[in-house]
Amino acid sequence: IGPLAGKKAIVIGGSRGIGAALVKRFAREGAAVAFTYVSSPDRARELVAAVESEGGRAIALQADSADASALEGAIAEAARALGGLDVLVNNAGILIFGNADEYSLEDFDRMFAVNVRGVFVAAKAAANHLSRGGKIFVIGSNTAERAMLAGLTVYGTTKAAVARLVRGLALDFAPRGISVVNIQPGPTTTDMMPLDGPHVDWVRNQSPEKRIADPDEIARFVAYLARPESTYINGVSLTIDGGFMA
Ligand code: NDP
What we know:
Blueprint (H helix, E strand, L loop, with lengths): L7 E5 L4 H12 L3 E6 L3 H13 L3 E6 L5 H15 L2 E6 L14 H23 L2 E10 L13 H21 L5 E7 L14 H7 L8 H12 L9 E5 L6
Parallel strand pairs: 1-2, 1-4, 2-3, 4-5, 5-6, 6-7
This protein binds NADPH dihydro-nicotinamide-adenine-dinucleotide phosphate (NDP).
């Protein structure tokens, strides 16, 4: 029995990285958790097994966030299997790095399909299942607020879009008693930001703490905000980046 006991949560994009940390953290704190993935069935299976080995409950559902009907279907299936939903975490996101002068429109559209349209589709679909007091979180990025590095133009723009999306959704869903919050991590060790990646030294040096976050640091923050005692936090972007933006 933990602080999220009895809660039912879905993490969109939960098979790896920050998403997998969210699934584990939520389950550890007592929630039953469904999560989606698109290309990593083995990682998804391993994660379900890891949660179950600790006595938790997790369900893996394959759904590409760029495919609205697949995503809506996964959310409906999660609500059916868990008996409702209390929390949606929209974590799925992709980074196609590249300077604007060489960036293809296919890549631009794919980035917006997953990072923005998918977030909108999931929020709309989940709102139909969330009870009053339900919570929607989006995992944005601190790149929404600072261009930081050439090559992040499109990625950062998708994250700026979700920061604005969350503010609007908070108003739209307020009559239904649902809050909507954007979490903006800074650099976090995952497949998207591997420790042997090209920008790691630059990123570490830019960071006041001279380090890159562990995914569980982000997951712990979201799990804390998902607790029943975390109230009156709505329509806002909260940055967790070790002072990177300071
Ligand atoms: P990873 O690339 O390590 O993991 C991405 C996760 O999202 C995987 O579970 C992946 O599933 C899933 N996913 C990707 N595309 C889709 C899709 N089309 N449909 C469904 N699921 C999908 O990324 P991170 O953990 O690093 O990033 C998670 C979120 O945090 C993203 O939104 C990212 O933008 C954001 N973020 C990350 C930072 C970092 O430094 N790592 C910093 C700031 C924000 P599958 O395994 O099936 O591919």
